[in-house]
């Protein structure tokens, strides 16, 4: 166990969470430390029992190398679970909304890499029933073996998790998809699903990016996901095996998502392994646990070799999305300068969703952001096949990411302008209303004072009469 | 009594007819192009562009574009930023240019220790982005601030400063790759 945990408040897609503990507070394992803000958000929990020593800005494994608010916890060594950690005894007898609430409270997110809050996916809208549940057991990327290891060791739990999910959604068809180079996982899962006639295991060819949603669906159903739509529109829901396991733990044991399996690999690691790792553990502690680094490490990557993010410091903590920690030697990486495009078309051949990567990159290069919709930039999942295959070493995915962030920022700026305008109009309307109100009050006051004056005059008459009758009235 | 009523009614009638005629006769046709430009401006009338309000700036730009007179810079709108410049350029059919000050987007921050709680800035903020009460330190809602500087002018103790909008992982942008290395450059 590391000496110190760094639990970032931004580990998922959507709104970051807000710290709900104070410095000096004692927390128990599984206690909520970050509260979810908004609908698309996920709570974070204390990975172990201990004391909150600070809430500070800490670096995360983000390509910007920027920091986010982070709850820092010093463990007390007791590793004591909180009282709130209580599972459902018989989850298949309660209402689905109770299970959805359990998943939401546990802060479960998609552990395949998208880190989308699982509770949102588990509550499909009424008009889009789920016909088919796909459990993604094909590894996201080369090097990574965390999912396959989990299937070998936790097949029973995963199947129990699937059973709960099929009851909650509800749906009555489920396919567990595993790549054919993992016979152990296929064997373990096939055995585990035998008592459940509605589930089956299907092996698919090992071919990156098999784990991507579009490719998974095409392999199983033969259908293509149309551009700009989600698999939910086709009545399909995909969950990763690790997410399924997390859902099992959340519902049956009541445990929030505070740990995950991480592949620690690459030739730079002395003892490569899959480790069950608490969220918030600094990368250096994980690497130390695996025997440390070999000499000559050129690059440290969080995630897989194609879609992962290079990190500059080992203080970065393991978060919910960290599927792997790779230490790569010189021989494993390619570092050559970008050359001109020779129009060979290899990127077009390898694109798994049939985009034209070179065309998108040309447009990004010349800042033609308004013409990106024609080439479906936003459909790109950044799998990296085009960059990997490019003989000119053009960082195609980098161009796409640049273009995507520019377009996204522009959209946000437009949204803000619209909001600004609404606020300005609201304020003007309010000022006018207030002015009218004030005018009315002034009128009323004038009328009141006039009335008082006349009343006083008549009152004076009454007073003199009273005086004449002898004696002043009291008050 | 009846005299008073009649004379007042007569006056009202005359004034009403006069106003009606004047409205028709002296009707100012508003420039449709200026209306279009106005639609993309923030309408906060902050005056940072150097014109008395958004309407005046919109009209100046529209007139210059239509009559080809002295060109009016389209990059004067501080709260609008790059998005507004792009929108103006689209409406007027001209090339977008860089934002007037190259310092990037800015936002106001109240030095709460100096704030006397006079609420002068709250009244001036066009987007209601400042919260606070009498004799309580005020603060700026960072996400709502447009950087128009209206509060700075209003503050009697100069406790509001403009700072660059901080970079966070949420608003961070991927840089653009440098492009191919040109091997023929000596």
Give a structural overview:
- The complex is a heterodimer of chains A (475) and B (186).
- Chain A has 475 residues and is an alpha/beta fold.
- Chain A folds into three domains: 92-255, NADH-ubiquinone oxidoreductase 51kDa subunit (Rossmann fold, 3-Layer(aba) Sandwich), CATH 3.40.50; 262-332, Ubiquitin-like (UB roll); 339-448, Fumarate Reductase Iron-sulfur Protein, Chain B, domain 2.
- Helices cover 35% and strands 17% of the residues of chain A.
- Chain A has twelve helices and 16 strands.
- Chain A has helices spanning 96-105, 118-121, 146-153, 155-168, 183-193, 213-221, 241-253, 283-289, 346-350, 357-365, 385-389, 396-468; strands at residues 5-8, 18-19, 26-27, 32-35, 44-45, 50-59, 67-75, 132-136, 174-179, 199-204, 236-240, 259-265, 273-278, 297-302, 309-311, 324-329.
- Chain A has a five-stranded mixed β-sheet, sandwiched between helices.
- In chain A, helix 5 links the parallel strand 9 and strand 10 (199-204).
- The longest helix of chain A is centred in the last third of the chain and has 73 residues, at 396-468.
- In chain A, 42% of the residues are buried.
- The mean pLDDT of chain A is 89.
- Chain B is mainly alpha-helical.
- Among the domains of chain B are: 32-92, 3-methyladenine DNA Glycosylase II, Chain A, domain 3 (Orthogonal Bundle), CATH 1.10.15; 106-164, Alpha-Beta Plaits (2-Layer Sandwich).
- In chain B, 37% of the residues lie in helices and 8% in strands.
- Chain B is flat and about 90 Å long.
- The termini of chain B are far apart.
- Chain A binds chain B through residues 10, 16, 60, 62-64, 66, 68, 337-340, 364-365, 392, 394-395, 398-399, 401-402, 404-406, 409-410, 412-414, 416-417, 419-421, 423-427, and chain B through 42-44, 79-84, 86, 125-129, 144, 146, 167-181.
